Each structure stands twice: as C-alpha cells, then as structure tokens.
Amino acid sequence: MTDVSTAPTLVVGLGCQRGCPVSTLLALLDQALEAHQIARHEIKALASIDSKRDEPALIELAQQLGLELTYFSSEQLAAYEPQLSHQSQIAFERTGCYGVAESAALALAEQLAQAPAKLLIPRQKYAQATLALAGAA
C-alpha cells in the first residue's frame, strides 16, 4: 500500500471546443492515463479555464468521475506560460493564455499540494479537446 502523504497530487487539465461530447473527453482521459499507467482513482481533481464554466461535457465528466472541477482565469493561467510544453497562438487568441490544459493542471496541482507542480503528461490533443496531467509532491 502506498503512503498517501507521499503520493503526488495528480490533476488533469482540460481544454475543449464548445459542444465537445463528454465521450471525447473520457476517451482522451483514459487513453492518456493508460499510456502512463495511471489509474483513474489516482486523479484528485480536474481543471480548466473559467470561460468553460458552462461547458456541459466538462461538468458531466467531473460528475461521472466524482471529481471537483476548478476553473482559473486566463490571468492566473498565464503565469504558467514558461512551463508549457507547447504554446498555442490559437489558444492565446481565443483565451488569453497559451495553453489551457497544461496551465490549468499546473495551477490546480500547485494549489492543492501547496508545492511546485510539474507536467507529467504534456498536452495531448484529440479531436475537439486537449488534456494534460500535472503532479505536485
């Protein structure tokens, strides 16, 4: 049994196009977790940008997984720009930050763990969505 206090705080950051189906988000999540041998129950929370607060698929995904979904403003997310694996000009034009999934994952992992976070799964793009996973010890 792993000691919970040493287990990293794993957080999934998500970005998606309007109207993206929850099945797309779930497929992307499971694919990324499987590729990195991470179990769904190890994920502590989900994060995205506040402009997606009313996105049905994100809300539905959080409910299906029984996880809390936290939103950050583009200003909060912009602080993580130096840590991003990929800087998207399109994302910046649409949201004011260069990477929603990675920035949101880093922001929430850091907030929950009260420690610096790092990207464990860099931005994964799939159909209408992006996903990243960050962890903080």
From TrEMBL:
Gene Ontology molecular function terms on file: cobalt-precorrin-5A acetaldehyde-lyase activity
Listed Pfam families: CbiG_C
UniProt name for this protein: Cobalt-precorrin-5A hydrolase
Keywords: Hydrolase
GO biological process terms on file: cobalamin biosynthetic process
Gene (UniProt): cbiG
Domain CobE/GbiG C-terminal: 10-134
InterPro entries cross-referenced by the UniProt entry: CbiG_hydrolase, CobE/GbiG_C, CobE/GbiG_C_sf
Highest rank taxon of the organism: Bacteria
Its EC number(s): 3.7.1.12
